[in-house]
Amino acid sequence: MTPAPALPVAISCGEPAGIGPEIAAKAWAALRGDVPLFWIGEPAHLPADLPFLLIDTPAQAAEALPRGLPVLHHAFAAPNTAGVANPANARGVIDVIARGVDLVRTGQAAALCTAPIHKKALQDGAGFAYPGHTEYLQALAGADRAVMMLASEQLRVVPTTIHTALSDVPRALTPALLRDTIRITDDGLRRQFGIAQPRIAVAGLNPHAGEGGAMGREEVDWIAALVTEMIAEGYDLRGPLPADTMFHASARMAYDCAVCMYHDQALIPIKTLDFDRGVNVTLGLPFIRTSPDHGTAFDIAGTGVANPSSMIEAIRMAHRMAQGTYRT
Ligand SMILES: NC(=O)C1=CN([C@@H]2O[C@H](COP(=O)(O)OP(=O)(O)OC[C@H]3O[C@@H](n4cnc5c(N)ncnc54)[C@H](O)[C@@H]3O)[C@@H](O)[C@H]2O)C=CC1
Ligand SMILES: NCC(=O)COP(=O)(O)O
Known about the structure:
Layout (H helix, E strand, L loop, with lengths): L8 E4 L7 H12 L5 E5 L10 E4 L5 H4 L4 E5 L16 H16 L5 E4 L4 H8 L6 H9 L5 E5 L4 E4 L9 H4 L2 H17 L7 E5 L14 H15 L3 E6 L7 H4 L4 E4 L2 H12 L4 E5 L5 E4 L16 H15 L5
Parallel strand pairs: 1-2, 1-5, 2-4, 3-4, 5-12, 7-10, 8-9, 8-10
Antiparallel strand pairs: 6-7, 6-11, 11-12
Subunit structure: Homodimer.
Family: Belongs to the PdxA family.
Subcellular location: Cytoplasm
């Protein structure tokens, strides 16, 4: 019997004034022989020389794929200018993400890969109440907690607080939040990354992980105790570790993922090591979602120079996770 064709990966268009349409077009050219996919958005936003085919349903994507980017049309309210977000298009950007989620949850697509959004443009243009996809997808899924992971061949990182202003981090960082983050990370490493016994490093919050209380008290007051408690429950943890010395090459050999305390503590090391190939994957959702690690890059939008590697990795990872064949 011929096996059923793999479901396609849905790609949300992201901010049309950014590089999202261009990297989706380049990803199609690179992946059309390997990965079933389709794009949701307004075809007028795609590069002018790109062959595309309008489809009515994701089931038509496989047939269209060799000839052009399969496009599920989503109408946008206003014209698009590269590099300048149009507030009138913010609603369309948000609705495309929700449409992609719906297609995955109704079994029409295998996974969602999101092109970058401009958070401020969505806030200003449509009162978007979420600081990023992660929090929006958590709400759409009705999940208790979604966790952001950035993954590359060299490193995986998770920020415990995500899009939180630095001055709010100490208040937002609680034992319950860190416990949940470690639990969801451990589960995601097992189920989505195929790691049987995940080793997780937990970063400290303060310089030198607090230096025994001399440079901050969170580590001695509760982070170390939580790590010890969770080790006793069977988690393979180490920490709290000083963040400045846990990312060099030999230190990285000791763990499968670093759980960090805030956004930049986690994202600076991975974007420095692997900006072109890092993938953002959301853990804790009832469906698969990946994204490139970079943003909308307004400064180069419309120039044709955007590097599609991170987008390609993100689509490939989503496809392999959906097939159950993603192994690190
Ligand atoms: N998943 C998402 O939706 C993400 C959205 N963002 C959003 O993107 C917007 C812009 O953020 P920035 O901090 O400026 O970061 P950015 O990643 O958009 O740009 C930073 C620098 O990297 C360059 N760059 C980024 N991607 C590139 C690519 N594929 N090829 C070549 N050069 C590339 C840009 O030209 C720029 O010089 C913000 O609104 C931010 O919140 C940022 C990260 C992820
Ligand atoms: N810096 C990563 C980032 O902002 C991506 O956030 P999200 O939109 O994936 O939640």
